[in-house]
Amino acid sequence: MRYFRPATRFRQIFIFTFLGLLLTFGAGCETTTPYSNPYIQPPQPPAYSPQQSTSPSRAATASTKPKVVEGSMTYVGGPKEVIHEVGPLETVWRISRMYGVTADSIYKANGLHSGVCLKEGQRLTIPNARMLRHVVNLYRSSQWRYIIIHHTATWKGNAKAINASHGDRGFWNGLGYHFIIDNGTMGKGDGQIEMSPRWIRQQEGAHCKASGMNDKSIGIALVGNFNIEAPTPNQLQSLTYLLKTLSAYYNIPSTNVLGHREVEGAKTECPGNNVNLLSVRQSLAGTSPRKRTAR
Ligand SMILES: [Zn+2]
């Protein structure tokens, strides 16, 4: 039997290597991202397959599938072909919802096979794009009790660029905010909402140390320097949409929606003197957006 040991050992190495590769390739896809956040509420057994709830860890993974809300933003003058640069952890399904096209049409136009993981920065052709729509994931969690509004203090930016910049500055896990609201620079729409990997993985923020806000608040940053300029009307409209969506889902009162400079202990002018935080809070009254089931 001694002669078989090397073969057995080889088989073990092969199996572990194969499993390792599977995990590596799956890690970039939003739907396969593991969650370890202790604040996420215990899962409810899924009604369609109650047998899955026998293992707590498996059930926890199933419960992290988000609800997705979609909001109309702007029509792109289509249907027409547009080029989309893939942001951090974006999926073909999410991009297809943003532009009002099918995922299959994106796969076909770009010679991709179904279910492929996209690379950040990859450029995709979107045929027959009709609109640019907000697609926001909502995860069951009791962690989020505040929302903090920031500006990037830069003229231009998008989630990919700020992710790289925060990574270079040594921020834990790159992009420190949970959402970015673009200003029409670097290939993104004016008022476009981008989710950061930190939100998709439901990780604490790296945007406001004061009062322990990184642990309990959702960080939203608008691209721009609002000590010099003002947010665009589209950015403000998207901010209101996002604040209404998040505050309704997580039961966050408008008094807990703060500008960075309003947080006790924060020594900053962020999000700039040209953001009227009182009027932002007043804009929160209204209806909540419709929800749809995630895929
Ligand atoms: Zn700030």
Structure description:
- This protein has 295 residues and is of the alpha/beta class.
- It has 2 domains: 67-136, Roll (Membrane-bound Lytic Murein Transglycosylase D, Chain A); 141-288, Lysozyme-like (3-Layer(aba) Sandwich), CATH 3.40.80.
- Helices cover 29% and strands 22% of the residues.
- The protein contains 9 helices and 8 strands.
- The protein has a 5-stranded mixed sheet with strand order 5-4-6-3-7. Strands 2-1-8 form a 3-stranded antiparallel sheet.
- A hairpin with a 6-residue loop joins β4 (179-183) and β5 (190-195).
- It is globular, with a radius of gyration of 21 Å.
- It starts with a helix and ends with a strand.
- Zinc ion (ZN) binds at residues 150, 260, 268, 270.
- Zinc ion binds next to loops.
Short description:
With 295 residues, the chain is α/β, with parallel strands linked by helices.
Summarize the amount of helix as a percent range. Answer: 25-40%
Rg to the nearest angstrom?
21 Å
- Strand segment tally: 8
Strand content: 15-25%
Gross morphology = globular
* CATH evolutionary superfamily of the largest domain: Peptidoglycan recognition protein-like
Number of helices: 9
Q: Secondary-structure map with pairings?
A:
Elements: H1 5-26, H2 56-63, E1 67-85, H3 92-99, H4 103-109, E2 123-138, E3 146-151, H5 159-168, E4 179-183, E5 190-195, H6 197-200, H7 213-216, E6 217-222, H8 233-249, E7 257-259, H9 277-282, E8 291-293
Parallel strand pairs: 3-6, 3-7, 4-6
Antiparallel strand pairs: 1-2, 1-8, 4-5
